[in-house]
Amino acid sequence: MSILRRFANSDLGYSFLHSRVVVAAAIVVAVVVVAAVGADALAPHNPFDLASLELFDALTPPAWEAGGQWIYPLGTDDQGRDVLSAIMYGTRVSLMVGFASVALSMAIGIPLGMISGYFGGMLDSVIMRFAEIQLTFPAILIALLIDGIVRTALPRDIHSDIAVFVLIAAIGFSNWVQYARTVRGMTLVERSKEYVQAAQVTGVHPLLIMLRHILPNVASPVLVIATIGLALAIVTEATLSFLGVGVPPTQPSLGTLIRIGNDFLFSGEWWIATFPSVTLVALVISVNLLGDWLRDVLNPRLN
């Protein structure tokens, strides 16, 4: 309770609690994350347990419509899978890919940005020119390229087993540039300050200077980028899965569920695509709102 009290009395807590939009966004994100992480215990059904599926219940409408059943609150898909349960399990995959790809982007971009800004010279030019070249290509095209190369190099059965990891790598490698550019700019500023120059004069190793002095001072803008980048990664994953090059059907994400429901959208089974789409939109908008709030709070000059 003392931690919550200190948070409520802090400037960050005051800003959070006095913004209804931010509080609502945080509640939406919390509900989605809890439902996804606790899907094994909270989901009404296991959509991946073939023995429990009833084909006779396929294409059952939502419970409030004629022909609906309350054991399937949001209806079922063409295989008799409960849509609500599929959304909960699918959101878990989308969140896992989103968080892992953001972590990979940070692991690549932050060190390259600090090295580029701290040492400068030819090393800085090479890293930044490579980053600028990558910026000329949309992230979705880079992700498609990486996924296509892996699909060509590996047998289909092996690729299916590691499809999630390939997707994480594809999204992570396509989004590291924004972290590198931001960290480089912050490193250039911090490098010229007296405390860094004093550490250099006393003979502290450059690696320790970057870890002890520069990295903590670039954490705030990186956190903002990571929050917004999470929403971008989730959308990218959903786009790739919708195009059929993301996670396999045996591990459906929100994008895969939307792609499956799209085939039945014009035949009257609107719920198969609508509810995963609403979940995706609500999650992405809420994460973006939290990212915007963090940016405003951590950068008072923008207010």
What is the gist of this entry?
The protein is built from 15 helices and no strands. Helices cover 72% and strands 0% of the residues.
Secondary-structure topology with pairs:
Elements: H1 2-9, H2 11-17, H3 20-37, H4 39-42, H5 83-119, H6 121-135, H7 139-153, H8 156-161, H9 163-174, H10 177-191, H11 194-201, H12 206-217, H13 219-242, H14 254-262, H15 271-298
Helix pairs in contact: 1-2, 3-5, 3-15, 5-6, 5-9, 5-10, 5-13, 5-14, 5-15, 7-9, 10-12, 10-13, 11-12, 13-14, 13-15, 14-15
Q: How many β-strand stretches?
A: 0
> Helical percent range?
over 70%
Q: What is the CATH homologous superfamily assignment?
A: MetI-like
Proportion of beta-strand residues: under 5%
In this structure, how is the largest beta sheet organized? none
CATH class: Mainly Alpha
- Estimate the mean pLDDT confidence: 87
What is the H/E string? HHHHHHHHHHHHHHH
